[in-house]
C-alpha cells in the first residue's frame, strides 16, 4: 500500500509520501538510542510536565487535528473531535498519576532476610509501535503516553493511509518540549518492520492490527527474544436478556456497532437476543439503524461516514452476500450508498449462523449480525465458540445472570448495561486470538519496563568492625 492520504469520502488522493530509505531508518534508530541514553535519567516530574504540555498543545490543535483524521480515514468530525479529547485526557492522566505508578513497590524485607527489599520499574529503551488507521490518534496515544511517562522512547510505524496524523504526533511531542528524538514517526512500509524490530537498539514492540500482522511481529520478536503486546481482532458479543431496558439497549447497540463507521475492534458485532424479546429488540434495532444519517463526515448532522478504504467496503459487501446466500435475512440496509466515496448503509442481518463469514470473520463496517437464543447459557456458549475474546456486553437486570456472564464469558473486558470502550483508568486488552498483554492504567506502563528486584542485606561484620574502629578513634 502506498503511503498516502486518500480521502475516503471522495476517493481523491490528496498527498503521497516516499517511504524512508534504509539509510534514513538507520539514522532514526541511532537517534532513538542516543535520546534514550539521556531521557531515561530524567525525573518523573519532568516527564509529567512534558505530558501536561503535550495535552495543552493537542487541546489547542483540536479542530485542525480532527479535520485531518476525518480527511484521512473518514470518521465523522464529531467522532474525531471526541478522539482528540480522549487523547488529551490520557496525557493528563499519566501526568497526574504516573509518578505514583513509578514509586518503588516495597516487599517484606524480614521474610527475605533483608534490611530493605523492593521492586523498582525501570524503562527498557526504544519501543516500536505498529498502529492501525481506525483510531489514528488514540491507538498511538494508548502506547505513547505511558511509554513516555515510563522513560522509554517511541518509534511509531503508523498505517500507510494516515501519514499526516502520524507526522503530527511526532510534531506534538516536539512542540511540547520533550527532548529531541524521544518520539519519532517512521514513514515505512510493512516490509521494513521486521528489520527495525530485529535491530538491537529496539527493545520491544506493540501492535494493534490484524491477526496476520500480529503473528508476523510476534514471530520476529520471539526469534530475537523481545517483549510484545498485541491487540488484534475482535468480534464482540452483545447479549440482550428479557429483563433489559430494550429501548436503551437498542439505542446503545446502534452506537456500539456503528461507532467509527463500524470500524472498531471493540465494536459489538454479534448480537445474541433472548427469544422472549427478539422480535421487539430486532424492530427497535432496525428502526434506529435505518434512521442514522449517512453522508459527508465533515457535516455535523452525519452519524455514519465512509469506510476508510475501497477494499474495506468490498470486504463488507462480500460478508453480507455470503450470509444471504447461506440463509440469512437482511432486515435493513445491505448495500453501498450511491454517491462518490466508500459508503455502506447501516445494516442488520438476522438468522446468522456459524457457517457464515459474517460470523467467523471480523467485519469492519456498520453491519450487525443477530441471532436469537433460548437463554443466557446458549448466548455465552455461542459467544465463546469464536476465536476472538476482546470485549463483551450483557444487558440484564438480573444479578445472577450478570455474575454468570462475568464468570463465564471468554473476553478481556466485560461490560454490563453499557458498550465496550477504553479508559485510561481501566486495563485494555483481550484473550485468545485477540492478543495478549494490556494497555492503559499502570499495567500498560509496566508492560515495557523492567521490574527490577532490589535486595539490600544487613551490614557485613567487616563493616561493623570498621564502624567500631572509626568510632574509637
From TrEMBL:
Coiled coil: none
InterPro entries membership: Ald_DH/histidinol_DH, Ald_DH_C, Ald_DH_N, Aldehyde_DH_dom, ALDH_GabD1-like, GABD/Sad-like
Gene3D superfamilies: Aldehyde Dehydrogenase, Chain A, domain 1, Aldehyde Dehydrogenase, Chain A, domain 2
Membrane-spanning intervals of the chain: none
Recorded family membership: Belongs to the aldehyde dehydrogenase family.
Keywords carried by this UniProt record: NADP, Oxidoreductase
PANTHER family the UniProt entry points to: SUCCINATE SEMIALDEHYDE DEHYDROGENASE [NAD(P)+] SAD (PTHR43217:SF1)
Lineage: Bacteria, Bacillati, Actinomycetota, Actinomycetes, Geodermatophilales
Protein name: Succinate-semialdehyde dehydrogenase / glutarate-semialdehyde dehydrogenase
Molecular function via GO: aldehyde dehydrogenase [NAD(P)+] activity; succinate-semialdehyde dehydrogenase (NAD+) activity
Name of one Pfam family that matches: Aldedh
Every Aldehyde dehydrogenase domain range: 3-454
Lineage: superkingdom: Bacteria
Protein's organism: Geodermatophilus pulveris
Amino acid at each position: 500500500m502506498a503511503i498516502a492520504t486518500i480521502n475516503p469520502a471522495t476517493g481523491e488522493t490528496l498527498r503521497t509520501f516516499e517511504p524512508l530509505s534504509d539509510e534514513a531508518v538507520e539514522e532514526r534508530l541511532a537517534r532513538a538510542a542516543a535520546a534514550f541514553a539521556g531521557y531515561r535519567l530524567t525525573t518523573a516530574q519532568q516527564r509529567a510536565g512534558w505530558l501536561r504540555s503535550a495535552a495543552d498543545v493537542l487541546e489547542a490543535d483540536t479542530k485542525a487535528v480532527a479535520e485531518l483524521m476525518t480527511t484521512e480515514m473518514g470518521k465523522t468530525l464529531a467522532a474525531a473531535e471526541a478522539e482528540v479529547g480522549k487523547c488529551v485526557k490520557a496525557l493528563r492522566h499519566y501526568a497526574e498519576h504516573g509518578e505514583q505508578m513509578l514509586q518503588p513497590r516495597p516487599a517484606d524485607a524480614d521474610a527475605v532476610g533483608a534490611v530493605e527489599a523492593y521492586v523498582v520499574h525501570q524503562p527498557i529503551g526504544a519501543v516500536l509501535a505498529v498502529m492501525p488507521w481506525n483510531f489514528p490518534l488514540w491507538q498511538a496515544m494508548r502506547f505513547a503516553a505511558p511509554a513516555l511517562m515510563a522513560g522509554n522512547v517511541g518509534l511509531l510505524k503508523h498505517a500507510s493511509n494516515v501519514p499526516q496524523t502520524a507526522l503530527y504526533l511526532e510534531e506534538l511531542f516536539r512542540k511540547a518540549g520533550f527532548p529531541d528524538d524521544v518520539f519519532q514517526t517512521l514513514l515505512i512500509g510493512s516490509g521494513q518492520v521486521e528489520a527495525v524490530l530485529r535491530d538491537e537498539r529496539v527493545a520491544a514492540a506493540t501492535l494493534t492490527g490484524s491477526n496476520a500482522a500480529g503473528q508476523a511481529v510476534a514471530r520476529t520478536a520471539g526469534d530475537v527474544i523481545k517483549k510484545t503486546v498485541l491487540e488484534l481482532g475482535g468480534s464482540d458479543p452483545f447479549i440482550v436478556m428479557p429483563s433489559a431496558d430494550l429501548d436503551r439497549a437498542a439505542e446503545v447497540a446502534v452506537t456500539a456497532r456503528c461507532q467509527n463507521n463500524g470500524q472498531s475492534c471493540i465494536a459489538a458485532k454479534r448480537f445474541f437476543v433472548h427469544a422472549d424479546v427478539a422480535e421487539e429488540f430486532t424492530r427497535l434495532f432496525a428502526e434506529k439503524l435505518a434512521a442514522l444519517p449517512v453522508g459527508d463526515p465533515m457535516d455535523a448532522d452525519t452519524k455514519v461516514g465512509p469506510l476508510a478504504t475501497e477494499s474495506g467496503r468490498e470486504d463488507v459487501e462480500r460478508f453480507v452476500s455470503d450470509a444471504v446466500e447461506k440463509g440469512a435475512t437482511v432486515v435493513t440496509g445491505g448495500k453501498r450508498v450511491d454517491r462518490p466515496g466508500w459508503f455502506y448503509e447501516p445494516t442488520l442481518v438476522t438468522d446468522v449462523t456459524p457457517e457464515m463469514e459474517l460470523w467467523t470473520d471480523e467485519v469492519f463496517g456498520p453491519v450487525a449480525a443477530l441471532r436469537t437464543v433460548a437463554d443466557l447459557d446458549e448466548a455465552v456458549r455461542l459467544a465463546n465458540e469464536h476465536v476472538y475474546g476482546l470485549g463483551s456486553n450483557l444487558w440484564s437486570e438480573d444479578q445472577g445472570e450478570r455474575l454468570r456472564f462475568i464468570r463465564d464469558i471468554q473476553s478481556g473486558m466485560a461490560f454490563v448495561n453499557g458498550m465496550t470502550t477504553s479508559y485510561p483508568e481501566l486495563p485494555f486488552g483481550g484473550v485468545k486470538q485477540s492478543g495478549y498483554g494490556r494497555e492503559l492504567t499502570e499495567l500498560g506502563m509496566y508492560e515495557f519496563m523492567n521490574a527490577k528486584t532490589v535486595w539490600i542485606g544487613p551490614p557485613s561484620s567487616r563493616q561493623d568492625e570498621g564502624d567500631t574502629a572509626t568510632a574509637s578513634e
